[in-house]
Amino acid sequence: MLIIFDVDDTLIDTWNYSMQPQLKRGLNAMVDAGLQVDDVNAAFREVSALNDTTANATETYSQFVGNKGADTTFVQIAMDAYNTPIESIAIPFLDGAKEVVETLSKTHSLALVTHGVEATQQRKIDNVELDRSLFVSIIVSKKYDKKEHYQKIMGETGFAADKIVVIGDKFKSDLLPAKELGMHTVHMKWGRGKVEKNVSPEFSISHLRELLPIIEGLA
Ligand SMILES: [Mg+2]
Predict the structure, then answer these.
(1) I need a labelling partner for 5 at 20 to 30 A (CA). Which of 22, 110, 181, 201 fits?
(2) What is the number of structural domains in the chain?
(3) Positive or negative: CA dihedral 130, 122, 205, 110
């Protein structure tokens, strides 16, 4: 089988190690630009709590700015700061990720399709010292929707759709395109995957080791 992995919040713990500093930077940028808050620490707790319930950071800041009755232009200021690549933070593997990848690589083909800025995503892979030779393809997608990349990998490797499994934490952008192509889907319930609503993956897991029996069952 061919197993296609997402990276952020599927193999590495982006939610806990990168999201909070990014969110804080966005808040600080709004405060620097004149957004009135009584207490920056309390404001950050508010932003962080909102972020547990929203689909993305834009929605988080929009609700926060709305709650404050402030001008909506602050949202873009926050997002620009949020999206600036962080050079120094190394995001570690999620528990079991390295072992699961190495185990599956012995009997299956593997690929990575990750969304984001090319240099940032490549650096995340380097930082965890993920062995690139274990993957037949590593793609950084500029678009959220990964369908064209899944099709490309399918064409290049020759695997039929029902012999391909895609695993990711974002149902809409990681899994829905795979489902539409007839591939198997595994929802990793981490990061936003924990709070995402209206999802209908074939399988759902909370720990990567749960992937092993699923793959064995499909193979
Ligand atoms: Mg992800």
Answers:
(1) 22
(2) 2
(3) negative
Q: Which residues of 16-52 are buried (b: 16+ CB within 10 A; e: fewer)?
A: eebbeebbbbbbbbbbeeebebeeeeebbebbeebbe
CA atoms of 65 and 75, how far apart (whole Å): 7
Co-location of 118 and 199 in the same domain: yes
Q: How far is the CA of 185 from the centre of ligand 1 (A)?
A: 14
Supply the pTM of this predicted model: 0.83
Q: How far apart are CA 72 and CA 64, in angstroms?
A: 10
Ligand 1 centroid – CA 167 distance (Å):
9
Distance 197 CA to ligand 1 centre (A): 15
In a 3-state reduction of DSSP, which class is residue 85?
A: coil
Taking the centre of ligand 1 as the mean of its atom positions, its distance from the CA of residue 32, in whole angstroms, is: 30
Residues 74 and 134 in one domain: no
Instruction: Please give the C-alpha separations between residue 36 and each of 89, 103, 115, 121, in angstroms, as whole numbers.
Output: 29, 52, 34, 34
Model confidence over 39-89: pLDDT tens digits? 999 999 999 999 988 878 999 999 999 999 999 999 999 999 998 876 666
Cα(190) to centroid(ligand 1), Å: 8
> Of 54, 83, 112, which residue is a domain's last?
83
Helix (H, G, I), strand (E, B) or coil at 109: strand
